[in-house]
Design goal:
The longest helix is centred in the N-terminal third of the chain and has 27 residues, at 8-34. 41% of the residues lie in helices and 7% in strands. The protein is of the alpha/beta class and 577 residues long. α9 runs parallel beside α11 (310-318). A hairpin with a 4-residue loop joins β5 (336-339) and β6.
Length: 577
């Protein structure tokens, strides 16, 4: 066979290769024209036009003449009484505004639809409803007294939630046990009842092994008073028990799993939780089947914020890894259905950041809702940790010594973020390439310890009296309590008489601040001591004549003055020898 001859096999392979290339190009152009993007959570968008363009896919534009973000007032003089009163008045006005606009803070509703609708019509209706919801939140952001947290701005993520809510009979909202009300969305419960009045919402309080038994008792009492269906649960403990492992973390104490007289305070195991979920879901199915069409299996949907343990819970219930799990929020991209038995099916929803009122977005970073690796200002997030975890707990966990407050400062103030980061870097030897402490690395490690439970902290239910809270904190002394009356406990400390600082202490503090920020030399600023009266008499010094220097007077020409000293001539007789 000659070189010039072309075989049929080679020609067919070349044609197939060219056809595949052309087909991939056509698909790329098709998806590019449709502006299809990878399903990704979007919580930070600086320009409102970008949000509208993403919602309508470049079909409509919405312009805002002023910025959406409203700066918070910053009180530089924290020791003055006027600034304290102004901050309290601002917070009171903010609470009033939040109560007035609480009904406007909703999750987006799916517009009514029928199976006869076309895909294009349904898509256009959902985009229009989502656009109206975004405009409503923009009007809330225009209010200077309201601060909205970052929330989910991708329509495709909300579509996943709509499908899960419509399919599920029992909706399980997974929350973090250390602050359940922060992760709870009351409007989501109302929306589920709007879809079907027979649906129920269960609060799955995950990571309950990080709470002491007396704290779980308080939360159980609060849930019962507010008619909230709840279950205490620990996905990590259930997974370890399923694999036959022992939890090595010292902060997950076995005492937290001790049996109590109240069955609702006990942390559920895997089999107990499956039985409870199946019982609650089947009860809903029975009530619905009595009035509507018959259906055999029950569907349980899991919803909640990112990084609260939804996928870990489903993996523990299924008995094997069926969904991706990571400490970074937003791992689950699409809702997944998992069949447990002929009577029970689980449905996992991607984590969503629901809109809410808050003082800052750094609290969401410290809570694990927003990714830690994407934060740009680490000191603000570390300050949230320093405010919620007591000083002695931080020093005990990390085996470090934090700087004490100055004599003219409030002695009960929490440590500053800079103090905590520098002490942590000094104890671990974290130094950046610039020679300064590597605060970014230290901040990420501290935040991961805070989220993982190494730094103990938990919130108490609202309405708990100050006396009970202080009594509990003194009797246990192991965790950090974040009660609703924590701000009132600082009033007594601020009114205490404080000793006025001396000039030496003030100068020493200023010099240490300048040295830490590279504003001064390493020479220590010393204050001249006052000498005794008998040592103040000094020998008067002779004033030097400096008339030879340059003089720029009116008569002078700017040139130096030179004095010539001429020795007088000897006019006496010359003596000869």
């Amino acid at each position: 066979m000659g070189k010039t001859e072309k075989t049929t096999l080679g020609r067919s392979l070349v044609k197939h290769h060219n056809h595949m290339i052309q087909e991939s190009k056509d698909k790329g152009k098709y998806y590019k024209n449709l502006q299809k993007k990878v399903l990704e959570s979007v919580t930070e968008v600086s320009d409102i036009d970008a949000i509208i363009e993403q919602a309508e896919e470049a079909e409509r534009l919405f312009t805002i003449n002023h910025s959406n973000t409203t700066p918070l007032p910053i009180n530089l003089d924290t020791n003055s009484s006027s600034s304290t009163v102004a901050a309290e008045e601002w917070r009171e006005q903010q609470k009033i505004e939040e109560a007035l606009h609480a009904s406007s803070l909703q999750v987006p509703r799916r517009p009514p639809w029928t199976p006869e609708m076309s895909v294009e019509e349904l898509d256009a209706n959902e985009k229009q409803a989502f656009l109206s919801w975004r405009r409503m939140l923009v009007r809330l952001e225009e209010n200077e007294k309201l601060v909205l947290t970052p929330f989910e701005k991708n329509l495709d993520i909300w579509r996943q939630l709509w499908r899960v809510l419509e399919r599920s009979d029992l909706i399980v909202m997974v929350v973090d046990a250390r602050d359940p009300l922060f992760y709870r969305c009351p409007d989501l419960e109302a929306y589920a009842r709007e879809i079907d009045e027979h649906k129920k919402i269960m609060l799955l309080v995950n990571k309950a092994d990080l709470l002491p038994p007396y704290v779980r008792e308080k939360w159980a009492e609060y849930f019962r008073l507010n008619n909230i269906l709840f279950v205490f649960w620990s996905a990590i403990a259930a997974t370890a028990a399923l694999e036959g492992k022992v939890l090595k973390e010292p902060w997950r104490k076995p005492d937290n799993f001790q049996k109590t007289d109240d069955p609702e305070v006990v942390i559920y195991g895997r089999d107990e939780l499956l039985s409870r979920l199946q019982y609650e879901a089947q009860e809903i199915v029975k009530v619905r089947n009595s009035s509507e069409s018959q259906r055999e299996n029950a569907v349980v949907g899991f919803v909640g914020y990112p990084n609260v343990g939804k996928s870990s819970t489903i993996n523990a219930l299924v008995g094997q890894k069926r969904t991706g799990v990571t400490s970074t929020p937003g791992k689950t991209k699409h809702f997944q259905t998992l069949i447990i038995s002929d009577e029970l099916m689980l449905c996992d929803c991607p984590g969503l950041v629901f809109p809410s009122f808050s003082s800052s977005r750094y609290e969401m970073i410290a809570s694990g809702v927003l990714p830690i690796d994407r934060m740009t200002e680490h000191r603000e997030a570390i300050q949230v940790v320093a405010d919620k975890v007591p000083r002695h707990v931080i020093e005990s966990v990390y085996n470090i010594s934090l700087p004490k407050p100055k004599p003219y400062e409030r002695q009960s103030r929490p440590p500053l973020a800079a103090e905590l980061l520098r002490a942590y870097c000094a104890s671990r030897g974290y130094v950046a390439s610039s020679g300064l402490p590597d605060e970014t690395k230290a901040a990420r490690l501290i935040l991961k310890d805070y989220i993982g439970g190494k730094l103990p902290h938990f919130a108490m239910p609202p309405g708990m009296s100050l006396g009970e809270e202080s009594k509990i904190d003194e009797s246990q002394g192991t965790g950090a309590v974040e009660g609703s009356d924590s701000e009132d406990s600082d009033v007594g400390d601020e009114t205490e008489s404080e000793q006025a600082p001396g000039i030496g202490e003030v100068l020493d503090d200023l010099s240490s601040f300048d040295l830490a920020n590279g504003l001064a030399s390493s020479k220590k600023v010393t204050v001249k001591k006052q000498t005794a009266s008998h040592k103040q008499h000094k020998k008067p010094q002779r004033k030097k004549d400096r008339n030879w220097r340059v003089q720029n007077t009116e008569d002078g020409d700017g040139m130096p003055l030179v004095r010539v000293f001429q020795k007088p001539a000897n006019t006496g007789p010359l003596m000869m020898r």
